[in-house]
Prior knowledge:
Blueprint: H1 6-15, E1 20-23, E2 35-38, E3 45-49, E4 54-58, H2 63-72, E5 75-76, H3 85-88, H4 96-102, H5 109-112, E6 119-125, E7 131-135, H6 147-151, E8 160-167, E9 169-170, E10 174-181, H7 185-196, E11 202-208, E12 217-224, H8 226-239, E13 244-248, H9 251-262, E14 273-278, H10 284-293, E15 297-303, E16 308-313, E17 327-332, H11 335-340, H12 349-362
Parallel strand pairs: 1-2
Antiparallel strand pairs: 3-4, 4-8, 5-9, 6-7, 6-8, 10-12, 10-13, 11-12, 14-16, 14-17, 15-16
Amino acid sequence: MKPETEAALAEMISAADGPLFIRGGGSRDVAVAGAVLETGGLRGITLYDPGSLTLVVKAGTPLDEIEAALEAEGQRLAFEPMDHRGLLGTSGAPSIGGVVAGNISGPRRIQAGACRDFLLGVRFVDGMGQIIKNGGRVMKNVTGYDLVKLMAGSWGTLGVLTEVSLKVLPKPEAAACLLIHGLQDAEAVAAMSKALGSPFDVTGAAHTPSGVDGHPVTMIRIEGFEGSVSYRAKKLREMFADRDVRVETEPARVSAGWRWVRDVEPMHGSTGDVWRVSMKPSDTPDLVQALRSEGFVKSVLYDWGGGLVWIETEPGKDIRTTGLKGHATLVRASDAARARIARFQPELAPVAALSDGIRCKFDPRGILNPGVMTQ
């Protein structure tokens, strides 16, 4: 099924007599047993007003198409959505509906915010085939319950998005990246925290124990007007004067470096399971060290100043059994591993009851991506 209008989508959902697998561009390997309902027919930019930094777009629109339109006006999606295709070995084209449904946000999240923070409004069809609209086309609007934020990260279990309204931002004039060489994980997290706590408006902070040259490198990004970037880069370099620091300012190299972080390129083409772990930055080096001591770890990439860690493990290893004090999502794994390890962090009983209650209100028949967030 591939509806080309919101009304057709509503009719299909209303008439459904069994589970539906909601599929956007097919770039993420989330799947359920059920009839496939594709959103790719709901495509196109409905409204784009560069002057008011507002974009309204149908949910099935490819992300590349949106970014090209923004690029032509010197603007961008500030939350820097990740492209999962290289990590997961998938094809297709990421769609904006899939990005919103997964609340997909990249390295700039620590400074600009997540995808949900740029959502102004949504239109979607719930599990009974009802068309629902919430939010608007400006940052300040009064519409009752904030279903806009609720839909972000719901993975299609509350409704099928048909249109989203987004706030966009101008592209910066310049960018620079400080590369601090030779830090161990705990030292790197401390350095990233120091940079993020400075007044120099850091927009990215990442660390890899094994960079492209095989040695540890910590990356600190700043963006803005050229003069400001130059000044802040100088000040940040002075903060780490006792370290081996290099400043990269060539635009293509800066962009490629942060795409390498955003898309978790160190783990492309490998065979291990990949976990996405969110926890307190000061705790992440100890977690990684504990997993290394048990022989779990193949590679690691720290993002968000250490608050997000991508961990590649030997296939079939469940890192949640190690007493992890955070939130771990199994992003890539074999079918055998998925059969026995839940994709998302299991919720505490009170939270699970609340989640089930919300899903029941929006999808009382339980037909929209059933089990995606609970299996």
